[in-house]
Amino acid sequence: MLHRPRSIPLRAIAVPWILITLLAASPGAAAAQEPAPIPFFVVDLHGLTTRFPDDDPQLAASRGLALEELPNRGFGGDIAVHVFPFRYRAVTFGLGGRLISVGASKNQDSQTLGLRPVSERFTYLGPQLSFNFGTESGWSYLSGGISVSRWSVAVDGPPLAGPDVERLKTLDYGGGARWFAKRHLAFSFDVRFYAINPTTPVNGLPAGPRTRLFVFGAGVSIK
What we know:
The chain is mostly beta strands. It contains 3 helices and 8 strands, in the order H-E-H-E-E-H-E-E-E-E-E. It is elongated. The N and C termini lie far apart (about 50 Å).
């Protein structure tokens, strides 16, 4: 069965322009003297929010759910660790890793609607390559990686199985910025897309859709 791709959301167009603006305005870019370079390592701790797709019949069918049972707004957190081993001209290259987990739930009034309570969770652990622009007092970045994720969408109660425990190839890409108001503590934010491969047909259910999640995070960074 062919699945018509969705149109590109406005945020997918707006985010790159926002990142370009941040790169141009990164702290220290216009300093008259040579600023201190980006430090060797940084740790990010962010709260996250995302909108899970709740209007995709293929997603509902792949989990044996009614469309009305799909959750929507999700919340969670992430931790990311980066090291910056070398710099070339205006670009400092970073290597690291990221762990995220976001979840949502939808409690139904089963007696009135005949719908079941459903919980949803997306978990991803993967490497990161980043391109950083700025100085030790603050910098912006573009980053990405490829790994596997687990995306469960299931009725509350029974143990997870089938597509809910499958490891799905996932590409992540995005960017953000860090501003160090104090020597070792910064405010930071991150905007990121996760492109998730379809699930495999199992237990008589159809394959899940190829999906792209948009995740926004904000919190602190420590160097």
